[in-house]
TrEMBL record:
Bias-annotated ranges (Basic residues): 8-18
Protein name, as recorded: EAL domain-containing protein
Gene Ontology terms for molecular function: cyclic-guanylate-specific phosphodiesterase activity
Region (Disordered): 1-27
Protein species of origin: Zemynaea arenosa
């Protein structure tokens, strides 16, 4: 019904209240009224009249209506209420009967507002009913209610705080979260409160000012951040939206606000920011890959990665990490890595990786998975550590621990290790192992006379020569000093032979050119073979060592294979070693004397004292067998002192007994010569024995004086002052420097017997000639040693040599055995 028609209908009805008797002919107003109307009999409840609007609304024709009662347009649920209403309603009164549910002919229901008035119609007590269809209005009401509930729940369900306040700054409502933060039990308690009533009351004035501005200007403030102090003193961060509220006329009536606590989010963002800055600034190279369908692709690399690998971030983005392997995919660690990736677990591996320039680096890579909330791996984080330098250093350390610094050959420890393995392997398969001991001959001389620089170069040359001649399965080691050790496998495929060892000997002996000088070096080689010569490593080493000493004793520059007899000789050396000390105390030494004769006159000029050891078991032991042992043990100092005094005493006895004045030559060992008290000792021996100083001749070997020229010059000056004579023994075997030789106050050079033995050959003769010429040019007398033949004697005389010593004239003999010869010579 149009709005304006309702008051009209009511006014007409009101008028009828005062004239309740209605004619049969119902007015047009009833018939044409747009709202459904009817009259029913109060007794029978039958419809007496219905208008057109009622027929349209309910779907019945007039005649159908007139056959029905008002119960027929009510659903069963309303019947009881109807009965109750009929029983109490005053028959004539006007009544606003409220809202009822009616039923149309088609069964559909409609809500109607019923207004009725009692009247008499056609002489019967009836009731006039006007209905107003309110179905639409009610459903709107219901929907409104529902939507209000919905909004309420929605607002309450929001994690944000929501509130609204009026122009007076008082809160008119808010959601549960807001009430909770405000410290209230329910949202209803918010109404009428101001900010001054809440925990943030200290900010109330500021908030009021802000809110007043928004409500005054109508300008919303959206998404701004604010930091508020909490009652416990902590600070929390919020994102706030505030917008003005308008009424239907567009007037501002208040303010709606939402507040979101972003403290955690902000902290998370901050810590994320911090973490990513840390990753960015990290000195460790970091790479992050995203798990892809086929490959894991690079999503991030930090600057340290670029620095380490040379790859810029944009060059690697979206690529698989494999580019770091550059095709070097046969690495055992890669299999471990793949397995860990497959099993989605962290792992640390060391890989060979390659920089952009192709250079290799050792990468200690730590890879760990990153999982999402559901636990699925979405990314991998890799931390790269370039351990190339560390590895190199480690390798160097390992190499240093097992190798000789000078030659880079394996050292004794590594050699022993390999020997042990080789023996274990050989004993299992019935193979042989050759242990070869190589010692350079007279190397000490090289070192002492030419200096350690030359010595080192020679050792390096020997190391290279030996290494070159070996197979890869063999080992050559340097045990220190001038000793080399070889391990040759004899395993059925390769057979070392005597020729193999001879080739080594020759390789060492080949001339070496060093700073424009040519050197010839020889070596002595001893060989022991597993299992025949010993089954334990130490035993084999000992036997190879023994064999090598045999080679030395046999004149050097040769090879000796270990034999059981060698053990006997070694036993003898051990015996010598042990009984030498007692020999000094027990006076088991005697001196033999060998005369040296003037080559022109044939008269004896002097004698050389040569020590002999009268061993109770071994008999007369020649010096070659015990002097080296005495040198090694230091006993040579005591022996030498005894020899010096005894020789001086003998020289004096010959004078005193009238045999004659003969100079007595005494061999001085290196150890004796280097003692600071040596000159004093000589002086004392002369004083004690009374031998005139000029009758004592001290023989010092070439190597001893050249080893420390400065010291030699000083000691010799002291000795010269005493008045003794001095000779260089074994001249020609060492490496004398002529410029140094002239510094020494020498009397004689003694030509080594090896040169005399070579005489008769052009080179032998040339050598002796040049030594004689050299000696004379320096004003030294020359004495030839080991002259055994008349030819040698004659030739030496022809060359201008001064004296000779040797079996030709006399073997070394005890003093008394020599007396007659000396006396005869003195008497000539
Ligand atoms: N084949 C051959 N040999 C000859 C001939 N004439 C002499 N000899 C030997 O040649 C050696 C000469 O002594 P040396 O060169 O000083 O060499 C000496 C010397 O270096 C050392 N020596 C001997 N006595 C002493 C000593 O009292 N003190 C020290 N420090 N060394 C000594 O022992 C070395 C060997 O002494 P010896 O066995 O007595 O050997 C002596 C001597 O017997 C010859 O015609 N033919």
């Amino acid at each position: 019904m149009p709005r304006q028609t309702r008051p009209v209908a009511r006014r007409q009805l009101a008028r009828r209240r005062h004239s309740p008797e209605v004619d049969d002919g119902l007015p047009g107003l009833f018939r044409d009224h747009p709202q459904p109307m009817w009259i029913y009999d109060l007794r029978t409840l039958r419809f007496m009249a219905v208008n057109e609007a009622a027929r349209r609304e309910y779907g019945y024709s007039e005649s159908e209506f007139l056959r029905m009662t008002i119960r027929d347009i009510r659903p069963p649920a309303e019947q009881e209420r109807l009965s109750a209403n009929l029983s109490v309603a005053a028959p004539r009164a006007f009544e606003n009967a409220g809202v009822w549910t009616h039923r149309r002919k088609d069964g559909s229901l409609l809500d109607v507002q019923v207004t009725s008035q009692g009247l008499r119609y056609r002489g019967r007590a009836c009731r006039f009913v006007l209905v107003h269809n309110v179905s639409g209005y009610l459903s709107v009401q219901r929907a409104l209610h529902q939507s209000e509930q919905l909004y309420r729940s929605l607002i309450d369900a929001l994690p944000q705080q929501v509130f609204w306040k009026g122009l007076d700054q008082r809160y008119q409502g808010g959601n549960k979260e807001f009430a909770r933060v405000a410290g209230l039990a329910s949202t209803g308690d918010l109404v009428g409160k101001t900010d001054a009533d809440f925990p943030w009351h200290y900010s109330a004035a500021r908030i009021a000012e802000e809110d007043a501005y928004i409500m005054r200007t109508g300008q919303a403030r959206l998404a701004y951040e604010d930091r508020l102090l909490e009652p416990d003193g902590s600070q929390r961060d919020y994102v706030i939206n505030k917008l003005p509220l308008h009424d239907a006329d567009g007037q501002i009536v208040g303010l709606l606000g939402t507040i979101q606590d972003i403290t955690e989010r902000k902290q998370a963002a901050q810590s994320l920011q911090l973490q990513s800055s840390a990753v960015e600034a990290s000195v460790n190279a970091i790479i992050i890959t995203r798990v892809g369908v086929k490959d894991d692709v690079v999503e991030y690399v930090n600057p340290a990665f670029t620095q380490m690998t040379g790859f810029a971030a944009d060059e690697v983005m979206g690529r698989d990490c494999r580019f770091l392997q550059a095709g070097d995919t046969e690495q055992p660690a890669l299999a471990d890595l793949r397995r860990a990736l497959h099993e989605e677990r962290a792992i640390t591996v060391v890989l060979r990786n390659y920089r952009k320039d192709g250079s290799l680096f050792w990468n200690e890579l730590r890879v760990a998975p990153v999982r999402d909330a559901q636990g699925a791996v979405t990314h991998w984080v890799g931390i790269l550590n370039d351990i190339t330098a560390t590895r190199r250093y480690q390798a160097e350390l390992e190499h240093q621990a097992s190798h000789d610094a000078l030659t880079s050959l394996p050292n004794r420890a590594l050699f022993n290790d390999r020997l042990e393995h080789a023996i274990a392997h050989a004993s299992r398969y019935g193979h042989k192992v050759w242990v070869v001991f190589i010692d350079l001959d007279n190397f000490k001389l090289v070192n002492d006379t030419l200096g350690h620089g030359v010595g080192d170069s020679l050792l390096q040359t020997v190391a290279q020569r030996l290494s070159r001649r070996l197979r890869s399965s063999d080992t050559v080691a340097r045990l220190g000093g001038d000793e080399f050790m070889l391990l040759l496998l004899d395993d059925g495929e390769q057979h070392p032979t005597g020729d193999t060892i001879a080739a080594l000997l020759n390789a060492v002996a080949a001339p070496v050119r060093l700073s424009d000088r040519e050197f010839s070096l020889t070596c002595s080689i001893g060989v022991a073979i597993f299992p025949g010569d010993g089954s334990a490593p130490q035993e084999l080493l000992k036997h190879a060592d023994m064999a090598m000493y045999q080679a030395k004793d046999a004149g050097r520059n040769q090879i000796k294979f270990f034999s059981a007899e060698m053990n006997e000789q070694v036993k003898e050396r051990t015996l010598i070693e042990h009984s030498l000390r007692a020999a000094v105390v027990r006076s088991q030494f005697v001196l033999h004397y060998q005369p040296s004769v003037c080559l022109t006159s044939g008269t004896v000029k002097g004698v050389e004292a040569l020590v002999r050891w009268n061993h109770p078991e071994l008999g007369m032991v020649p010096p070659a067998r015990f002097i080296p042992v005495a040198e090694d043990t230091g006993l040579i100092v005591d022996i030498g002192s005894w020899v010096l005094r005894e020789a001086c005493a003998q020289g004096r006895r010959w004078i005193d007994s009238g045999v004659g004045r003969f100079s007595v030559a005494v061999n001085v060992s290196a150890r004796q010569f280097r003692r600071p008290s040596f000159a004093a000792e000589v002086r004392e021996a002369l004083r004690e024995t009374g031998l005139p100083a000029d009758l004592l001749d001290l023989e010092i070997t070439e190597s001893v004086v050249m080893a420390d020229v400065q010291q030699a010059v000083e000691v010799m000056a002291e000795l010269k002052e005493i008045g003794v004579r001095m000779s260089i023994d074994d001249f020609g075997t060492g490496y004398s420097s002529l410029s140094y030789l002239r510094l020494f106050p020498l009397d004689y050079l003694k030509i080594d017997q090896s040169f005399i033995a070579e005489m008769g050959t052009p080179s032998g003769d040339a050598m002796v000639r040049s030594i004689v010429m050299l000696g004379h040019s320096l004003d030294f007398g020359l004495i030839a040693e080991g002259v055994e033949t008349a030819a040698q004697r004659d030739h030496l005389r022809d060359l201008g040599c001064d004296q000779m010593q040797g079996y030709l004239f006399s073997r070394p003999q005890p003093a008394d055995a020599l007396e007659a010869l000396l006396a005869a010579s003195a008497g000539r």
